[in-house]
Amino acid sequence: MPGKRITDLTALSGANSANNDDLVIFDATASETKRISRSQLAEGMQADVQVFSNKTMTLGSNTVTGTTAQFNTALTDNNFATQAGAETLTNKTIDSASNTLTVNYKEARVETSDASRTHLFTTVAALLADTGTYTTYAAGQIVEAGGFRYEVAASGASDQNVTTAGGVKLYVRGDIITQAQAPSADIAAIGYSLGAMMLVKSGETVKLTCDPSSGGDIQAMANWFSSHGHFVETGGNFYIEVADGLHNVSTYIDVVDGGLLDIRGTADPDFLDVASATFSGASGAITATIVVSALTPLPSRVQAGFAVGGLNIQGDGGADLLNCGMIVKARTNNTTFTADLYSNGTNLAAFTTPDNTASLGLTPNKLMVPKCTIRAAEAGWDGAAREGFMNAERGGRIHLRDIGLSYNGVAGDNDMLFATDSGSEISLEDYCVIAGSGEMCVRSFNHANIYTNRSCLGGAHTGANIWQGSGGGTFTAIRTMMGSVTGDALSNSSGAEMFITASVVTGANILARTTYPDSSANITDSRLSRGNLGVAPTEGNILIDSSSSIKNCTTPISVAGSQSGIAHGNPTISDNTNPTVTAFAIQDSGGVWLPSATKPYDAGFYKVGRFSGSLNFPSISANSYADLTVSATGAAFNDFCLVQRSGSAEPAQGIDFRAFVSAADTVTVRAYNITTGAIDPTAFTALVLVIRAT
Predict the structure, then answer these.
(1) Dist. CA 289–CA 220, nearest whole Å
(2) Taking a C-beta distance cutoff of 8 angstroms, is the pair 684, 646 a contact?
(3) Which of 273-282, 305-314, 379-388, 389-398 has the lowest mean pLDDT?
(4) Gap between the Cα atoms of 422 and 472, Å rounded
């Protein structure tokens, strides 16, 4: 129907009526109604371009089709975005509460309000493998990878912590630092510089290196280490490692409120063979000249002020006096040095012949030389206000391993190398050498604990004590060498305890002393030597077992005073100036040290043993007797025997019991009937005491 107008349409009249498919139109010009069929309308629409305006199309029942390009052509002020397209979105806001945005972290870039850019990566490995360069990154930007944070360093920086494959330099950032954040970096140094908390995983070793001689601040490092709540999983290692050499330190270290400080050397000490020693005098403050084997010469670090330890030195002369921590006074050559010691003077002669018999679970005759020594300066702390160079208080814990520590204090000063109280702990776990003090090496108070193992402690002839404990404190020494002090080597009071095992205590006024009724000492498998007094329980209780010895003392055991304590045990006692053991010393087996000031020790008067046996005598005629025997190992002819019934008084039967040694290891109990009629004694258990007096 091209070109048809409405006037050309057929009017409706009579038989020319509209069908269901027709459209009815009113021709206003002709004032009549006309019709047009749907086919006619379609024909006209195809042939002509029609412009619709103000029309509404229902898409539910109609379809509009076209290409993206066609639609973009129709859209005059912008472009359409498609689901599968790669269009760049700008100035869009996505509501995360009602939308899910899935991204690849490696590709994501998030703008921040301060114009810096945050780069996100799923793992640290993905970050380090990123090949993006400084065209992608800018200094100061924040990068996140695997939950860790980094800051982009300047391209010319040289102090970065990690570098990506693309050459981008990064600083580690965060409040909690772990090795996984920078796998190849010194993560402890990073954590210390940030003041961050360290997380150390099982199997990891994280150490903060401290070189005081090169400016390392051991006090600041110790404060960070002990006060930041670091978490170390079981199987992980975290500690401060002191560089090799002799380091002068003019400061102090405090560990408080449950903090933990772990300080170690770089490796185990060197162990040199001790060949001989001579001494400048016999008693008091003396100087020892010590010679090591040329096969194991002194390392170059052994100079004046360095701490070394005599470990299980044994042999002739004054060999035992060398078992302590010592400060090198001077180095003569590669095999000889001098050190100041303290001696009581008993039998002191040159040491020329080492005894290499194994003892104490230690290889004998070794000089222990740590890789490092921290030399504390006297001006570093005031003993009146802060007792120790290292102080553990209110539950603080200090652990040392493979460390040397020296201090030339002034005699009588109220300062010490270690002080601990209020449930705190100091542990010299392995191969530590502690030498010198103004007052004492170690003090524990108020239920604080000290533990040493395979270490050497000494007072360098100026210190008054190795250890002093009170208020329930404990001192446990295993394979530890202690000595060279002017007062009591080991002393405790008011509930304090000491446990000395496989150790040596030497060179002191009193080697072991308890001074309070509830103080105690337990000494097993140890050697005590060169004290004016060996053991001296002023009050309290000292046990020294039969595997221990007291030698080269003025008096081996001294127990005196109206409130004196008790010493008991059976140590070997020999080579003492005055072998007399004073009152209130009781021996478990061997010499009986009688509780009387008028009864001195007599090595020939002692208990052989206490024995028992069940006896059932037959009926005994008037004025007659009968014999039965009791086994008594060690009994010999001429020993004295006492016998009594066990558990009850003698019955009034007219029987008199006597005992005597009738053969080796045999005691005969004889029952006399002293009445005029026969008596059948009641069966009983006989207790027999055998005493020997020579």
Answers:
(1) 38
(2) yes
(3) 379-388
(4) 10
**pLDDT tens digits, residue range 81-124?**
777 777 766 667 776 567 766 655 444 444 444 445 568 899 99
The answer to whether 557 and 550 have CB atoms below 8 angstroms apart is: yes
CA nearest to 201, candidates 174, 230, 229: 230
CA of residue 160 relative to chain centroid, distance: 32
Residue 610 has, within 13 A of its CA and on its CB side, a CA count of 6
To 10 degrees, the CA torsion angle through 251, 256, 259, 260?
50
How far is Cα 508 from Cα 483, in angstroms, rounded to an integer? 6
**CB environment 477-512: b (16+ within 10 A), e (fewer):** bbbbbbbbbbbbbbbbbbbbbbbbbbbbbbbbbbbb
The C-alpha atoms of residue 410 and residue 331 are separated, in whole angstroms, by 22
Best CA proximity match to 594, nearest among 628, 629, 559, 620: 559
pLDDT at 24: 67
CA 403 → CA 159, 264, 269, 273, 308, distances in Å? 31, 6, 8, 20, 10
Q: Indicate the SS3 state at residue 214.
A: helix
Distance CA 359, CA 501 (A): 12
In this structure, the strands spanning 481-483 and 456-458 are parallel
- Rounded to two decimals, what is the model's pTM? 0.72
Strand 245-249 with 372-376, pairing: parallel
Cα–Cα nearest to 511, from 492, 494, 488, 495:
488
Region for 214 from its dihedrals, namely left if φ exceeds 0, alpha if ψ lies in -120 to 50, beta otherwise: alpha
Find the DSSP H helices in 502-633: none
pLDDT tens-digit series, residues 51-81: 667 777 777 777 878 887 887 787 777 777 7
How many other CB atoms are found less than 10 A from the CB of residue 683? 9
CA distance 548 to 523: 7
Q: Which of left, alpha, beta for 334 (phi over 0: left; psi -120 to 50: alpha)?
A: alpha
- What letter does residue 493 receive in the DSSP assignment? -
Q: Using CB atoms within 10 Å of the CB of residue 74, give its burial: 0 to 12 exposed, 13 to 18 middle, 19+ buried.
A: exposed
Burial label for 146, CB within 10 Å (0-12, 13-18, 19+), is middle
The DSSP 8-state label assigned to residue 83 in this structure reads: S
Q: What is the DSSP letter of 76?
A: S
What's the helix, strand, coil split of the chain in %, to 5? Answer: 10, 45, 50
> In this structure, are residues 264 and 325 in contact, taking their beta carbons and an 8 Å threshold?
no
- Bridge-partner residues for 118, per DSSP? 110, 142
Q: Using one digit for the tens of pLDDT, what is the confidence trace for 318-376?
A: 999 999 999 999 999 999 999 999 988 777 899 999 999 999 999 999 999 999 999 98
The C-alpha angle 247, 250, 252, rounded to 5 degrees, equals 105
* Residue 191 dihedral angles phi and psi, to the nearest 5°: -60, -40
